[in-house]
Amino acid sequence: MALYDNKHWLLSHIRNSFISSDDTGISEVVMGGENLLQTLFTAKCDTYPGIEDNEEEEEIAQSLDIHTEFGVRRQRSHTSVQLERLQRNMIKSANLRHIKWELTPVSLTDEEMAELFPKKDITNQKINYNSELAKLLKACPYLPQNPFREYSKYDGNTQLGEATRKYGIFITMLNLERRNYPMQVSIIATAKVHDLIGLVCWKCTIEYPDCTLKESVDCYALYIAEDDGEVDFDFPCLDSRETVAKFGFGFLALVERDSKLAPAVPNHSPTSQEGDSILCENINTKAQQQLEGELNKLLAIEAPLYQLYQVNILNKVRAKAEIHLGISGQKIELDPVVKQRSTSKFPWTKQKPATYDMDCVVACDLTETKSNNRAVFRLVYDSTALSSSSIGDSVPGQQGTAVWSNFKHHDFEAEQKLAEDIVQKINNILELRCSVRRQEYISLRERKSHRRRSFHLGPR
Amino acid sequence: MVDNTLTEKVLLATGGYDHTIKLWHANTGVCNRSLTHLESQVNALEITPDRQLLAAAGFQHIRMYDLNSSNPNPILNYEGISKNITGVGFHEDGKWMFTCGEDCSARVWDLRSRNLQCQRIFQTNAPINSICLHPNQGELILGDQSGLLHIWDLKTDHNEQLIPEVDASILHVAIDSSANYVASVNNRGNCYLWKFNGNGTRLSPEHKMTAHKKYALHCKFSPNSTLLATSSADQTACIWKTSDFSLKQELKDEHQRWVWDTAFSNDSEHLLTASSDGVARLWNIETGNIEREYEGHQKAITALAFCDP
């Protein structure tokens, strides 16, 4: 026990034990007046900090027999918490005037009664039937149903006495300037994440009337975010069926789930009818552009994630073979689809499985778009890097040594949309990596295209 | 787009079982303030004639809130009553307040702080469910649980009793602004109407109808006295013409539950309802469509107050 390592404490304990257990009082007379600690042990005990500077505790005798509440920080008792609450309520109710029911001791005379409670003649009264509400309703007759209105009831700001949670929410759909400022959202603690998304959308429609949102809460997800608004895509989005109280994050980001679902709809805020449709269209197109930009960014972020595509590889003789193309941030894997019985008549069309490190992949481009909605794309890689395991070989000083013939390629054919996606993904990865070989290849390609502009052979 | 001063003229407050009172932008459906109503549901809400205060009747208290500040707590607390207070209202000049409650009493509270001359009490043998003031400001009409309708003359202290239906609890009473009719609804869904005879206060039965198949909760005349709204546990509110007592419109929605309270817009073209599903609704009486919904309460809404000058 650490306590007993303390010589200072032990000495004090022994002294106090003598004093307290000696009924004759002699021990107290002998030892009580001295302050041994200061006179004798200061030098030796200086490894135990707090002897000098803690005067107060010094005064309290240290002994197991002596119990005190003052030495240690005591847990606040239930009573004191309650007292404090009472006091708070008192302050609150200082502004509250209490009026107790009481009857006047003297009963009123008939005259007094008639005077105090006269009957008004109501035969010729003019009543004004103007309705301000009707005026207001006429002022904005067109109040489209906001699909998120039902979630407004979860707003913690309009609740009193209910447990609430506060979040800073980054709305990734907003334009750049505003996206970096979180929207403060307070929600009742018992609400589900689904309700929180709805509430965020609801507040969004009110605070950012020019931001277009999709009609359904299901189009959105909440991700954990940094306080600077960076979305943490490493973690999955919050499960929308969970209650919000389960998550203790201060900052979240509202992210659209999938752009292919449901087209964006104009915001529903009370607007007058005139000019509304034009406004909506403008907003729509703007939002669309915004969305596309956003989506591309998302794709770039997601690019290093492993994904498997099924494409056809084209051989030298343009024969097709089905393969699986696995792309991740580290490498590209070519894996032939194994069939029970090879339908191909040509043995040379058989593709061996291969793996290319992302460092040796230098380019990927669409080369051909066919009329049948299919496209061909080319993957160019550095074949020397395959044999020499370390990439460090070719880095310094060898910039100019890259030889065109070292770059080999594979051609693949896939559905156009898929091909575009793959090319985009690989290019996103390559951009992230900025490998030396890729730079070499690009400069080489540029020089080459200068030299022979009229035709291009070999890997482009 | 929308004039703010105009918005502030229209006041809508709702309250219920979730111990909060919410104030709404009536035209947008957005809640702009919440008030605390601790330890009690809200049985009735009323805005003072000067539009400064909101009175909320709850268990043993009538609390008043300042409408022109952002203070979520009450500033006045009328107390000293042993049971639920079921109804609250004001003299048109704000001289006094009247309440009724389950302690079988109706009270008149003098609102002047030092002078309590106007304090009055009226006692019956059954809990009083509803109270309303005759437009002449001199008579209070009360409906109690034993099925008795009382007309309490404040000037003479006389009271007149009517028994529309034996053993049926009167849930709500109403009088129209020109003091032609008095209406009451009871727990069997029946609605009774009386007509005032000439200058006197004597009432003669005018009409009886089965307004709802279940428990009726509320009735109210439109400001122009041409319509009567009744609401019920059958999840609807009905609009009746006072000319021939025919049904003009049934206000009904699949989400709507018990309809506890109603209020007409001043032009008698819209009706606000408060329902157990936690939503208040604004209906167009002519079309029967919902024009606005006020969502935000976590539990049933049992009272609303609306001011549309």
UniProtKB/TrEMBL annotation, chain A:
<dbReference type="Pfam" id="PF16978">
    <property type="entry name" value="CRIM"/>
</dbReference>
<dbReference type="Pfam" id="PF16979">
    <property type="entry name" value="SIN1_PH"/>
</dbReference>
<comment type="similarity">
    <text>Belongs to the SIN1 family.</text>
</comment>
<dbReference type="GO" id="GO:0005886">
    <property type="term" value="C:plasma membrane"/>
</dbReference>
<dbReference type="InterPro" id="IPR032679">
    <property type="entry name" value="Sin1_N"/>
</dbReference>
<feature type="domain" description="CRIM">
    <location>
        <begin position="130"/>
        <end position="259"/>
    </location>
</feature>
<feature type="domain" description="Sin1 N-terminal">
    <location>
        <begin position="44"/>
        <end position="122"/>
    </location>
</feature>
<dbReference type="Pfam" id="PF05422">
    <property type="entry name" value="SIN1"/>
</dbReference>
<protein>
    <submittedName>
        <fullName>Sin1, middle CRIM domain,Sin1, N-terminal,SAPK-interacting protein 1, Pleckstrin-homology domain</fullName>
    </submittedName>
</protein>
<dbReference type="InterPro" id="IPR011993">
    <property type="entry name" value="PH-like_dom_sf"/>
</dbReference>
<feature type="domain" description="SIN1-type PH">
    <location>
        <begin position="305"/>
        <end position="431"/>
    </location>
</feature>
<dbReference type="GO" id="GO:0038203">
    <property type="term" value="P:TORC2 signaling"/>
</dbReference>
<dbReference type="InterPro" id="IPR031313">
    <property type="entry name" value="Sin1_PH_dom"/>
</dbReference>
<dbReference type="InterPro" id="IPR031567">
    <property type="entry name" value="CRIM_dom"/>
</dbReference>
<dbReference type="InterPro" id="IPR008828">
    <property type="entry name" value="Sin1/Avo1"/>
</dbReference>
<dbReference type="GO" id="GO:0005546">
    <property type="term" value="F:phosphatidylinositol-4,5-bisphosphate binding"/>
</dbReference>
<dbReference type="GO" id="GO:0031932">
    <property type="term" value="C:TORC2 complex"/>
</dbReference>
<dbReference type="GO" id="GO:0005737">
    <property type="term" value="C:cytoplasm"/>
</dbReference>
From TrEMBL, chain B:
<dbReference type="GO" id="GO:0032956">
    <property type="term" value="P:regulation of actin cytoskeleton organization"/>
</dbReference>
<keyword id="KW-0677">Repeat</keyword>
<comment type="subunit">
    <text>Part of TORC1 complex. Part of the TORC2 complex.</text>
</comment>
<feature type="repeat" description="WD">
    <location>
        <begin position="252"/>
        <end position="293"/>
    </location>
</feature>
<dbReference type="GO" id="GO:0038203">
    <property type="term" value="P:TORC2 signaling"/>
</dbReference>
<protein>
    <recommendedName>
        <fullName>Target of rapamycin complex subunit lst8</fullName>
    </recommendedName>
</protein>
<comment type="similarity">
    <text>Belongs to the WD repeat LST8 family.</text>
</comment>
<keyword id="KW-0853">WD repeat</keyword>
<dbReference type="GO" id="GO:0032535">
    <property type="term" value="P:regulation of cellular component size"/>
</dbReference>
<dbReference type="InterPro" id="IPR037588">
    <property type="entry name" value="MLST8"/>
</dbReference>
<feature type="repeat" description="WD">
    <location>
        <begin position="78"/>
        <end position="119"/>
    </location>
</feature>
<feature type="repeat" description="WD">
    <location>
        <begin position="11"/>
        <end position="34"/>
    </location>
</feature>
<dbReference type="InterPro" id="IPR019775">
    <property type="entry name" value="WD40_repeat_CS"/>
</dbReference>
<dbReference type="InterPro" id="IPR020472">
    <property type="entry name" value="WD40_PAC1"/>
</dbReference>
<dbReference type="Pfam" id="PF00400">
    <property type="entry name" value="WD40"/>
</dbReference>
<dbReference type="InterPro" id="IPR036322">
    <property type="entry name" value="WD40_repeat_dom_sf"/>
</dbReference>
<dbReference type="InterPro" id="IPR001680">
    <property type="entry name" value="WD40_rpt"/>
</dbReference>
<dbReference type="GO" id="GO:0031932">
    <property type="term" value="C:TORC2 complex"/>
</dbReference>
<dbReference type="GO" id="GO:0051897">
    <property type="term" value="P:positive regulation of phosphatidylinositol 3-kinase/protein kinase B signal transduction"/>
</dbReference>
<dbReference type="InterPro" id="IPR015943">
    <property type="entry name" value="WD40/YVTN_repeat-like_dom_sf"/>
</dbReference>
<feature type="repeat" description="WD">
    <location>
        <begin position="209"/>
        <end position="250"/>
    </location>
</feature>
<dbReference type="GO" id="GO:0031931">
    <property type="term" value="C:TORC1 complex"/>
</dbReference>
